[in-house]
Amino acid sequence: MLQSLDVNTCSNYGTGLLRFTQFCDQTSVPESAHMPASTELLSLFSTHHTSQLSEKMLNNWLTGLHFWHIVNGASWNGNDMLHHIQRGFSKLVPTSSKRAKCPPVTLDALCTLHDWLNLTDTFDAAIWALAAIAFWSCCQLGELLVPSAHSFDSSKHAPHSILPLSISSLENGTQYSSFHIPCASLPSQAPLFTFHATSHWSLMTCTWFLQRCNQVWVSAGFPNMPGHAFCIGGATKLLLQGVPPDIVATQGCWKSQAFLDYWHQINSILP
After folding, report:
1. Residues 61, 19: contact at Cβ < 8 Å?
2. Which of 76, 102, 193, 210 has the greatest number of C-beta atoms within 10 Å?
3. Distance in angstroms (rounded) separating the CA atoms of residues 91 and 44
4. Vertex 158 angle, CA 152 and 162, to 5°
């Protein structure tokens, strides 16, 4: 079961388990009561960190505890009481733990990026291909890029062998392309987004991609934008074009109402 988790997920879950164990030790909870943890104990653990953590961090910790119970075949007592504790927790998150909403990549910013890039250069060509796909497909950059130059894994990252993409048409004439990311059955070849560097081919990393995009945007008067701005901007643009919200949510792989947090210009979207 542990193999089903990414390295970063394992780290986050491990932190939650460590904090829970430390809390139990501090409050003299006997080890026999750690698992299965009672509803009261889980609620006390959550309220103990009120006004100290972000809601996302607490949820990650509780999810890690839940997974720990599943691995050990123990029942999980996260019932209505814990649910209401979490709702109250979210209202008391300190300002220092809240991130300001990042601006979305707009169509104007995307067009500016295209105009300022040198598409005869393989590096800039890879930048543009990636930016267009991330925007219109509402992708997280982690779905398209590798974190470092030596971390390509064909079971997690799209290889170059998926090209060329096929073009299909809907009944209304709308054309689209689709490819699956990731797919363990794909061959371990070159990553999808590569560029020619001196005497060899190099893979595009998230750091290089964002540095080049923001170099253009800041020079053109746009704010410095994080990777998530592509997903936000793409979703907003599709909604403004009249694409049904459920289709946009599916395209962006949203499975909860967190999708609503990414709707910029919401007054223009809703009737």
Report:
1. yes
2. 193
3. 17
4. 135
